[in-house]
Amino acid sequence: MGEWHGEREWYNDRIFEAIISTEDIDRQHELVRMSGLEKVMDWFVKYGVIHYKHSFINFAEPLGWKREGDVIKIKAGAHTNYEGLFPHYDWIWKQIKDYYLAGVPGYMSIGGSKVEAQLKCDDFTGSCFNDISKLGIFEASWVGASPANTGAAVTHVNVMAKSEPELPELIQKPFGPWKDWDACMAEMRQQYDEETAKKVCGKLKSEFCGKLESELEAKQEVLKPQSDKMTEEGKVETEVAKQEEPVTSEAPPAEENPMAMIMRALEELKAMLAQMLKSKEAPITETKTEAPAESVGGKPGEVRVSFKSDEEFAAAVQKIIDANKIVTKTSDKPSQVPGQDRGSFVAKAIEEAMSARSAKEFFNR
Fold it and tell me: Do 266 and 350 have their domain in common?
């Protein structure tokens, strides 16, 4: 479609092409005549700059121009992030590529001085516009989705060119230059319908989230060996800790357990009284009486008890009661009179045991 005029070389591969103006009435009610614009294009390629949204950031330069019917196109080269000092160049270049890859139009605009302009109005509609036949332009701008002339769009981008180094935190945002989703949508709705606006903002957001996810995965890969090592060390430490845990000792033998000793004494008393109830008609004599004892402390065994007289038996019972503070079921209180044997508390307990029909009746009444 024609050769480039004033074409020159560029130091990197960040090259894109765009229409900078068409012979149509734009949103600012201006019409630029291509015959007037093309007169200044050679100068513009040599000395002009390309800004980001008409700001002070000149991120690119024109490398050539040509006219195709009622439009004028330029070839431009974008700067790289020299020694990491210009991160905004990477960010702007990535934005241009993202628009192009998403199939969403990204637009250009021109800035200059109006040398010859005439206000013209339509008698039928009453609408007016500024007809510019001669002008001088000193800059063009990438304006994203906010053009004055909807025909001035980027037509080609060398997407193979890299946008390398990471952007600083102050510039790297999920919606590019917009603060958030609402700000992005507000501007996009001015140019597109609702569905297209959502696609543009959604694309910007997905690119940002995808980058964050990739960075996170990369960091996880770096930390994985260390994490595995920590896990293995943690496992070893846990095993060592388990080995060092004190083993809960079993209950001491009945002979060393005070509670077991008390229970043993009670069992001996119970077994002895049971034996006495079985032989109520035969008085206690000096012959040895053996009473089998139930298991004490979970260990089978037998306790042998013998008394020479009922006084010795009563003294043994009293000793167990005094030592373990046992409260019997007798209805009488022990006598406080010194030397009282038969009428004593222990003697009364023995009498009641002798009159009971069974040990169960004596202990549970």
Answer: yes
